[in-house]
Amino acid sequence: MRKLIVSGILTLIVLSGCSSEAGVTTDEKVTGLVSDYLGALESKDISAMVKYTDDLRFPDKNEQKKQYSHIEAEITDTKIIEIKKVSETEFEATVEMVSDGDLNELTFPIQKQEENWKIIVGQDF
To answer: Which domains does the chain have, with CATH numbers?
Structure first.
């Protein structure tokens, strides 16, 4: 009887974990990704910035990390303005940030690549 109760509790825990993950919408995942990326920009967390992006300028992730380590801009006051669904595999995020004291509004494409969503950067260079 005790094994049955323990087994039942474990099953409920596993199922509730699965349902909460399934309950996260694509919009929420993309919004979370953008929010995490903005936080990484502000804290200059290079590993996270590389993780969340597909930088078209650097096909090699090691080169991307190396170049990101030379970023001197002071980025603060980041904010998501809008996230718009373009298709099932693409969103567009408009964000606002202060870079070295200047207010900038930028728009980034976000694409589903295999199982993960990535913010596309470097397309303007």
So the answer is: 25-121 (3.10.450.50)
Give the C-alpha separation, 17 to 114, whole Å.
23
Q: Sort residue 38 into left (φ over 0), alpha (ψ -120 to 50) or beta.
A: alpha
* 72-95 confidence digits (pLDDT tens): 899 999 999 999 999 999 999 999
For 49, phi then psi, to 5°, come to -60, -40
Burial of 109 (0-12, 13-18, 19+ CB in 10 A): middle
Give the tens place of pLDDT for each residue, 9-62: 544 344 444 444 456 799 999 999 999 999 999 999 999 999 999 999 998 999
